[in-house]
């Protein structure tokens, strides 16, 4: 099961104070670039993988999506997304459900768009998830996601890989060494899954997706003028944005 760090009090309290938590999509500097990858949603069926506070679900609803399913492993996230709506009821046409994306099952050809924001770097069994998404999309359906860039996830842990005798053989912060990384982000012991950029893209291809766009996101000059603190995001990409079709 995915580590459910968002249901721990310390982490959730800190996460709730972040700009993207307070201001929603407008507080996420990568949102304009990500939004440009999303097809028209009028009368379309959408699934949000790792819906968090439900910001994208509500945006999709405003764009005219006919069905929206928001999935998250965190009950805290879902409670905030629902805003007091009973779990058994749709929140204005949006259905929120608790789900572990490591074990996700979706009906075939049920959605026109699968969307995910900054969630996939937590997923260990990504091949299985990509296969589930692929079969859940209609032919020509879209898969749009963002994830922490592998350059960002690679050095998260100072630990070493060991051989059978227990000898340290290389540091886990090497980019080419894929696997879990443990980092202290908002709380101690947050586990993320590091994989190379090529691993993400090749896995999409192997699953049967056609890659339409890849962006190693960096802030624009206009964003830098408005938020000088984003300058560090030009030193190395923090996020990768991907659009693919079935």
TrEMBL record:
Molecular function per GO: S-adenosylmethionine-dependent methyltransferase activity
Keywords, sorted A to Z: Methyltransferase, S-adenosyl-L-methionine, Transferase
CDD domains (UniProt xref): AdoMet_MTases
Residue span, Methyltransferase type domain: 47-145
Protein name as it appears in the record: SAM-dependent methyltransferase
Xref: InterPro entries: Methyltransf_11, SAM-dependent_MTases_sf
One Pfam family of this chain: Methyltransf_11
GO biological process, one term: methylation
The UniProt record lists the keyword Nucleotidyltransferase: no
Top-level lineage group: Bacteria
């Amino acid at each position: 099961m995915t580590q459910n760090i968002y249901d721990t009090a310390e982490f959730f309290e800190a996460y709730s104070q972040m700009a993207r938590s307070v201001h929603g999509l407008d507080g996420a500097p990568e949102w304009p670039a990500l939004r440009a990858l999303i097809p028209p949603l009028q009368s379309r069926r959408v699934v949000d993988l790792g819906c968090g506070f439900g910001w994208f679900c509500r945006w999709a609803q405003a764009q005219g999506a006919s069905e929206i399913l928001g999935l998250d492993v965190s009950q805290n996230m879902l409670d905030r997304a629902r805003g007091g709506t009973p779990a058994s009821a749709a929140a204005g046409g949006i259905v929120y459900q608790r789900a572990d994306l490591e074990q996700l099952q979706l009906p075939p050809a049920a959605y026109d768009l699968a969307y995910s924001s900054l969630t996939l770097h937590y997923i260990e069994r990504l091949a299985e998830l990509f296969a589930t998404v692929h079969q859940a999309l209609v032919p020509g359906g879209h898969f749009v996601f963002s994830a922490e860039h592998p350059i960002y996830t690679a050095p998260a842990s100072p630990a070493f890989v060991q051989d059978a005798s227990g000898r340290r053989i290389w540091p886990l912060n090497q980019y080419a060494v894929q696997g879990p990384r443990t980092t202290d982000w908002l709380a101690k012991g947050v586990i993320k899954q590091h994989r190379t950029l090529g691993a993400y893209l090749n896995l999409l291809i192997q699953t049967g997706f056609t890659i339409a766009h890849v962006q190693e996101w960096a802030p624009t000059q206009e964003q830098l003028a408005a938020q000088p603190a984003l300058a560090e995001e030009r030193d190395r990409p923090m996020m990768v944005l991907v659009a693919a079709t079935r």
